[in-house]
Amino acid sequence: MSSLSTHILDTISGRPAAGVSFRLFQEDAVLFEGVTDHDGRCPALREIPLERGTYRLEFEIGAYFRAAGHVLSDPPFLDVVPIVFGLGEGTHAHVPLLAAPYGYSTYRGS
C-alpha cells in the first residue's frame, strides 16, 4: 500500500492555507474529504491506504480566498483546483499546492 500527504500554501500572504476543504478521488469515487489545519496540512490524509493507480485531489481554493477577505471575480477564475496524479505501489507521494486567486503550481514533494 501507498500513502499520500498534501500541504497548501497561500502565495498571497506567504503563509500556510488553513481551512481549505479538499477531496481525494479515484475515478468518480470519493476516498477522503478533509480540511487543512493551521499549518495547511491534513494529517488524517496520510492514514488512508492507497493502491497503485491514478488519483485526483480537488481543492476548494475559491472558498478559501473569499473567506480570507479577497474580492474575487464572479465567477472566480479559480474556484476548484484539480490535481490528477499517479501513485506507484508501496510509495509515499507528497502533493503540495501553492495557490493564489489567479494561479497555482504543484510538484511532487518529499
TrEMBL record:
Name of the protein: 5-hydroxyisourate hydrolase
Function: Catalyzes the hydrolysis of 5-hydroxyisourate (HIU) to 2-oxo-4-hydroxy-4-carboxy-5-ureidoimidazoline (OHCU).
Superkingdom, taxonomy of origin: Bacteria
Organism, scientific name: Gluconobacter frateurii NRIC 0228
Coiled-coil annotated spans: none
Keywords for the protein's UniProt record, in alphabetical order: Hydrolase, Purine metabolism
Positions of the Transthyretin/hydroxyisourate hydrolase domain: 4-109
Keyword flag Hydrolase: yes
Family membership: Belongs to the transthyretin family. 5-hydroxyisourate hydrolase subfamily.
Subunit structure: Homotetramer.
EC number(s) per entry: 3.5.2.17
InterPro entries: Hydroxyisourate_hydrolase (IPR014306), Transthyretin/HIU_hydrolase (IPR000895), Transthyretin/HIU_hydrolase_d (IPR023416), Transthyretin/HIU_hydrolase_sf (IPR036817)
Reactions mediated catalytically: 5-hydroxyisourate + H2O = 5-hydroxy-2-oxo-4-ureido-2,5-dihydro-1H-imidazole-5-carboxylate + H(+)
SUPFAM superfamilies: Transthyretin (synonym: prealbumin)
